[in-house]
Amino acid sequence: MNKGYEMAKRKRIEATLSPLEKEIMDVIWKLGQAKAEDVREALKSKHDLTDSTVRTLLRRIEAKGILEHTTEGRTFIYRSPVRPSALANEAVRRVVDKFCEGSLSSLLIGMAGERMISADELRELAKEIERAEKRQKHSQ
């Protein structure tokens, strides 16, 4: 199976969130699930948001594939099927595809060259990859 087919087959998520959408997601990830009112209450010390604004933002995030909802009566209960780490991975994947011709090693080498990642961090990453490969071999 080719890589393009695999990526098309899995549900794509739009990894870009505005700063306010990210704050909303932080609330939902912390609570596990939330109503619009729960989100508005959690953010009221930082943002004076109307109920309508919160609902609009929740719909936008849901359209990106990062939220889903169930209903209890007429109330929407939101939860995220996406872990924060999966969202971060998708964002990195987009950067690698867009700027590094799909090569993660090119990204890491560039980060090392710009001193965004140290040689020690790269060595630790290599060790973690080796450990993960060993675990994968043992589980097969």
CATH homologous superfamily identity of the domain at 19-79:
Winged helix-like DNA-binding domain superfamily/Winged helix DNA-binding domain
Helix content: 55-70%
**Helix and strand element order:** HHHHEEHHH
From the alpha-carbon coordinates, what is the Rg to the nearest angstrom?
Answer: 19 Å
State mean pLDDT (0 to 100 scale): 87
**Structural class, from helix and strand content?**
mainly alpha
Shape: elongated
Strand order across the largest sheet: 1-2
Q: Give the amount of beta strand, in percent.
A: 5-15%
* Helical stretch tally: 7
Largest sheet: 2 strands, antiparallel
Give the termini distance in whole angstroms.
19 Å
Under CATH at level 1, the class of the domain at 19-79 stands as Mainly Alpha
**Unreliable residue runs:** 1-10
SS elements, strand count = 2
CATH fold call of the domain at 19-79:
Arc Repressor Mutant, subunit A
Q: Quickly give the CATH architecture of the domain at 19-79.
A: Orthogonal Bundle
Description:
Among the domains are: 19-79, Arc Repressor Mutant, subunit A; 104-139. Strand 1 (68-72) and strand 2 form a beta hairpin. It has helices at 3-9, 19-31, 36-43, 51-63, 84-99, 104-113, 119-139; strands spanning 68-72, 75-79. It is mainly α and 140 residues long. It is built from seven helices and two strands.
Provide a short characterization of the protein structure:
With 140 residues, this protein is mostly helical.
What are the key terms here?
140 residues; mainly alpha; Arc Repressor Mutant, subunit A; two-stranded antiparallel ribbon; 2 strands; 63% helix; 7% strand; disordered N terminus
